[in-house]
Design a protein that fits this description.
seven-stranded mixed β-sheet; 39% helix; alpha/beta; single chain
């Protein structure tokens, strides 16, 4: 498999074992978890050991390989278990469908397809990064949300991949990244990746975005996606819609970066995208310690949908759509 940028990676396939960097522990600890069954893999996806739509799809593909290595009759049951692990990220279901498409009982063929999905994701990221970077004028300041780097993909990253490439090309002067409550993927993971590569970054609280854009010029808000509907409406980490609204108000442009496997053209608009809701404890507790009064209820959607009208450009490995429309996306994706 192709090496990732500067060795940053979240997934390894070695000697028939799926190894996942436990992203719940970063940046304090770099610990790898071995997955030996599809159930192990599904649990790792659900529990956010591995996260980021492309990385989830890659992990699920290898989860199927683990299942059929034990018993070829396990394919259907393993597919159901993996499909149920996270509902919003369409890459998960795309990868499972692709694996089903080549499944004839040949385990080696299935493993080769999982490896191909892994390698293709990195190549797609590098292509998207070039397309996205070309949209950014030299000297720009950008804001990103959640983590969309090598940790969330097969390597290099989607939105953070664009930022990484644009910085290497001298186009970016400053990067701001949100903390991204409640899992703090921005504070823990994006900051870790930026500092590891020496990219100038500043961390902001999620609620500081409007103040930032009102007092400092932000040229682009650049985010990833977990599912993109046929009209360009985009599901991404909770808080993305809010950033798009603020960006529109203050004149910052808004870019979504995602591989073609993230598009779901079967859904006419974002209102049809299933939005995952997770346990209240993710909001009422922090590392197991209560931060809210006992019995406090919580509404905890982990994604929201940004309307296409608030998006200036959608970038995938096949090109750029600006502005996104149903007809333009259909033409791009064939």
């Amino acid at each position: 498999m192709t090496e990732t940028s500067k060795g940053v990676q979240a997934i390894r396939w070695q000697n028939g074992v799926l190894q996942l960097l436990d992203q719940r522990l970063l940046p304090a600890e770099e610990r790898w978890i071995d997955c030996r069954t599809a159930v192990d893999t599904a649990a790792a996806i659900h529990d956010m050991v591995v996260r980021g739509a492309p990385a989830i799809g890659i992990a699920a593909a290898f989860g199927l390989v683990l299942a059929v290595r034990a018993d070829a009759a396990n394919f259907d049951a393993a597919e159901r278990v993996l499909a149920a692990s996270r509902p919003t990220a369409v890459n998960l279901h795309w990868a499972l469908q692709r694996m089903r498409g080549v499944w004839t009982g040949d385990v080696a063929r299935l493993e080769a397809e999982a490896v191909a999905i892994f390698d293709e994701d990195l190549r797609q990221n590098l292509t998207m990064a070039q397309f996205g970077a070309e949209l950014i004028a030299p000297g720009s300041a950008v804001l990103t949300h959640c983590n969309t780097g090598a940790l969330a993909t097969g390597g290099h990253g989607t939105a953070l991949g664009v930022i990484r490439t644009a910085w290497q090309q001298g186009r970016i002067a400053e990067v701001y990244n949100t903390e991204t409550r409640p899992w703090l993927q921005g504070a823990r993971l994006t900051a870790w990746e930026l500092m590891r590569e020496g990219i100038p970054g500043q961390l902001i609280a999620d609620g500081a975005a409007a103040h930032l854009m009102s007092t400092r010029k932000i040229d682009w808000v650049i985010v990833g996606a977990d599912r993109i509907a046929a009209n360009g409406d985009t599901a991404n980490k909770i808080g993305t819609h809010m950033l798009a609204v603020v960006a529109k108000h203050y004149g910052a442009r808004f870019m979504v970066v995602a591989p073609s496997g993230t598009f779901d053209l079967s859904l006419a608009n974002g209102g049809l995208i299933p939005i995952e809701e997770r346990t209240a404890r993710e909001l009422t507790e922090f590392k197991g310690a209560a931060i809210a009064p006992a019995g406090m209820r919580a509404f905890n959607p982990v994604f929201d949908v940004t309307p296409a009208a608030l998006i200036d450009a959608i970038v995938c490995e096949r090109g750029v759509v600006s502005p996104p429309t149903t007809a333009a996306l259909k033409a791009l994706l064939g």
